[in-house]
Design brief:
The structure holds two protein chains of two kinds. By secondary structure, chain A is mainly alpha-helical. Chain A has 16 helices and no strands. The termini of chain A are far apart. Chain B has a single domain, classed as 3-Layer(aba) Sandwich (Rossmann fold), CATH 3.40.50. Chain B is 32% helix and 29% strand. Classes of the chains: A mainly alpha, B alpha/beta. Chains A and B meet through helix 1, helix 2, helix 3, helix 11 and helix 12 of A and helix 2, strand 6, helix 3 and helix 4 of B.
């Protein structure tokens, strides 16, 4: 292997460096300290999220006493509330928050666009169209007899929302692959797909009856109380491999920060990293949206918040962003359950309410 | 001595627009080759084709006699370091940016040696005080040094610099070229430098390639740079003066 041999052969200058013992100088020590601070930041976020999780389990109209939950597993009312309502809800908040934030960080990187979010490729509108189609045309979603809307029946609506979300993504990625779309073209294609899905959804809403209309609108309110245990299994099953893949790609994402040309000159297959990054981030988002509906701003704001705190190194940015997303959604959901208790606000509304001003604040800070 | 970098009959076209036509030249180890030519002559495309960031339509690029075409992107990145014309800062620190240059050599994570290579370069270029600053807070001159350090961290055998001294003040310009010359000589590597600055080129170049409309008009040592050639290629009349023993190209207005 000629080039290997040639490239690695050190020059006279670096040979001198190599002869020295492993001692590192002042700069390297400062750098190591810098890395330790980054690890500490991620650890602190994890601890905070753990505390928020415990707090989230306690929030609700029914006061839980830990001793009684643990003493009578599966028997007492408290244990049932804990295992089938509180715990799945809180876990869903963790997974959805982490997934959306992670997807947002990857989208912003591979599209070179600070405004990119998990929904940039038209996923939310695609999912809404999918849900509207089965609710409006096939009459799914109305849980009859209970007297109030408890949301769409998952068996039909979840796959439809997922399919709707992915149709637009696949169309855009195929076009991008065939015609070598630039990042800007991909973002614009996402805007076009969103408009198309919105139009189609509006059409369905126009022709459907009130019950279905209410169901469709209700579906769009993101709510982490919706998924059951099995659904959470699905979400974790997609989240964990996606996280591992993204962390594996962390140096490629770092290279992309300096632009496509530099990344290419460093040996990165830019088109491949971009397309796979978009596909996996979209898959991650689509699964969550199908199960919980639309939760805005978490995916947009968390990467910005973390970048402001610890910079743009994806070794730390990706895990820290995921944890921040989990923390943010846990707190938002706890707030959503306590604001007008015993009623529950849909957390998606709350994140947008809080997210928009927080985003403006970040912009204000950054411009200072 | 045989050539380290050899480019033979290289042709390239964007869609149906021909950009390079049978470009041929050689550069030896320890030499700086300067590419001169008017805007749109194909200089940047040439650099990208040499590194196979753009796939040439025809022709052959070889390094120490080996055909570059058969190498993987990672192998190429260990041999060619490319510095683009326009660089913008981002939220990565100076240290991490230079560490990126080690990426073609990395497996899962940077090793102790990678960290030492970066440290060494930061010291060499006087960037130690900036090590933990995000690159979007640097001045233009500082950023150029960081980008050069990243390219050197690749430990390349061929350095490709595209209008590297643009946006630098006179002192930084000279310093940057001195660093390039120092590294090229000390590591016995080759550099291909695109520039529009005749006088800097004459000062630091060992070999010249003048291209116009995608074709090589002249290639060789300093003696190929004649007033007649520059008039043909750039359409301006010039005179070559000598000041303190250095040739100086003066445009006649």
């Amino acid at each position: 292997m000629g080039p290997e041999k040639g490239a690695i052969r050190p020059s006279a200058e670096s040979e001198r460096v190599d002869m020295r013992p492993m001692s590192e100088g002042r700069i390297a020590r400062t750098y190591r300290r810098h890395l330790r601070r980054r690890y500490a930041f991620v650890t602190a976020l994890l601890v905070l999220t753990g505390l928020a999780l415990i707090y989230g389990l306690q929030v609700g109209p029914y006061a839980l006493h830990w001793s009684r939950v643990l003493a009578h597993p599966g028997q007492s009312v408290e244990a049932r509330i804990f295992w089938s309502i509180r715990l799945p809800r809180v876990l869903a908040a963790v997974i959805v928050g982490a997934s959306l934030a992670l997807a947002g960080a990857v989208m912003q990187n591979v599209l070179h666009n600070p405004l990119a979010s998990p929904f940039t490729m038209g996923i939310s509108h695609g999912a809404m169209f999918g849900a509207a189609l089965v609710i409006g045309v096939m009459g799914a979603g109305w849980e009859g007899g209970t007297g109030h809307l408890v949301g769409a029946r998952p068996s039909a609506v979840v796959p439809a929302a997922f399919a709707g979300a992915m149709v637009g993504v696949v169309v855009i990625l195929v076009l991008a692959r065939l015609r070598g779309f630039t990042p800007e073209a991909i973002v614009l294609a996402g805007v076009a797909m969103s408009a198309l899905f919105t139009a189609a959804t509006t059409l369905i809403q126009y022709f459907t009856d009130e019950t279905a209309l209410v169901s469709i609108v209700y579906w769009t309110f993101g709510d982490v109380g919706r998924p059951a245990w099995g659904d959470i299994g699905w979400m974790i099953g997609v989240f964990v491999p996606a996280l591992v893949y993204f962390l594996w790609q962390r140096w490629n994402f770092n290279a992309l920060e300096s632009g496509d040309e530099v990344a290419r000159s460093l040996g990165v297959d830019v088109a491949r990293v971009r397309l796979l990054g978009l596909l996996i981030a979209s898959l991650l988002t689509a699964v969550d949206v199908a199960f919980v509906g639309i939760i805005g701003f978490v995916g947009l704001i968390c990467p910005h918040f973390v970048r402001l705190a610890i910079g743009g190194d994806h070794r730390f940015l990706l895990p820290a962003t995921a944890v921040t997303g989990a923390l943010l959604l846990l707190l938002a959901d706890a707030l959503a359950r306590s604001l007008i208790s015993p009623d529950i606000l849909p957390v998606g509304v709350l994140t947008s309410f809080l997210g928009a001003p927080m985003f403006l604040y970040l912009l204000w800070r950054r411009s200072a | 001595m045989s050539a380290l970098l050899s480019v033979e009959d290289l042709s390239y076209a964007y869609k149906h627009l021909p950009v390079l036509h049978r470009v041929t030249f050689q550069v030896r180890a320890g030499e700086i080759a300067v590419v001169l030519g008017p805007n749109g002559a194909g200089k940047s495309t040439l650099l990208k084709c040499v590194a196979y960031m753009l796939r040439p339509r025809e022709g052959r690029v070889s390094v120490a006699g080996e055909d570059v075409r058969t190498w993987s992107a990672r192998q190429r990145a260990r041999v060619f370091a490319y510095v683009p014309q326009i660089n913008t800062g981002n939220m990565l620190t100076v240290f991490d940016t230079v560490l990126l240059g080690r990426k073609p050599h990395m497996r899962w994570s940077p090793t102790g040696r990678d960290v030492r290579v970066v440290e060494e370069l930061l010291e060499l270029l006087g960037l130690d005080a900036l090590a933990l600053r995000p690159t979007n807070t640097l001045s233009g001159g500082e950023l150029q040094k960081v980008v050069l350090a990243r390219a050197l961290a690749q430990e390349p055998r061929i350095l490709l610099l595209d209008e590297f001294t643009n946006n630098l003040d006179i002192r930084n310009r000279i310093e940057a070229m001195q660093w390039v010359q120092h590294v090229v000589r000390a590591r016995n590597i080759a550099a291909v430098v695109v520039t529009h600055e005749f006088n800097l080129a004459l000062r630091y170049g060992d070999r010249y390639i003048v291209i116009d409309k995608g074709r090589v008009r002249a290639a060789g040592d300093r003696s190929v740079i004649t007033p007649q050639l520059l008039e043909d290629v750039f359409g301006i009349r010039v005179r070559v003066e000598h000041i303190s023993g250095h040739p100086l190209i003066v445009p006649l207005l």
